[in-house]
Design a protein that fits this description.
single chain, 272 residues, nine-stranded mixed β-sheet, five-stranded antiparallel β-sheet
Amino acid sequence: MSIFWHDGRAHEGDSLNLPISSPALLYGATIFTTLRLYQQNLNHPLTHWQAHCYRLASTVKVFGWNEPDWSDMERGARFLGQHYPVLRLTIFPDSLSLITGRDLPKDLEEIQSNGVKGWVAEDPVFVRSLAQYKTGNYLGPWLAKQKAHLQGQREAILLNKQGHWLESATGNLWGYSDGIFYTPQLSQDILPGIARGYLVNSMERQNIRYQEVIWDFDLLSSLETIAYSNSVVEVVPFYKIEMEEQTLTFDPEHHSYGILRQFYPNNLKLLS
């Protein structure tokens, strides 16, 4: 039986009652953030609790929604954090919130070490709506990832109308070539991921070279590695990416991944 937090208290079950006129049902009108608790601790530096709260609060302000009870959300997150290592915090336009939990991917350590196969969703129909915000309307990336799964790939990569690579269906992209890391520009209408921001800040502190650039054909043809990041999986390399007319292959043991992994000390050992 699942446990979730809604309307100020914990519930058991797998369903939630919403009116049929709810904008969440009609338009996907929710905002959310997904975080991973390290050592069951909201205050652990790798949990990035304040960054996730800021993401929600700033979007609530931009959208002009009623603010939720932030202290209640923290109580709910602390409670569910005793049961799940991954939490999704969702806010509705009327200020109500929902917190659900889930486990880490069972093969997380394997994909972090050995990489995954990816598929380039070359039709821009798969691009996310209001991409700079984490809204409940995730239909485009969800469809892309479902199609990738049907073809035997783990993750999809989304493009804009110009054919530039933007992000994966679930995270931000990273490439490496000749001592420099590359990530797509936020100005290209992509999500400013919390893991992305953490990696950028960590690189700046250690004077590791990185650039925010447009991912066009010239850049792609020069990259030695490609990976994606998010708050749950941290950094996962691609060992193969299938495109319409060609397939890219990479070494998941490339030394550049060690540079990124150093920012997640002890990795899964941090989990309780």
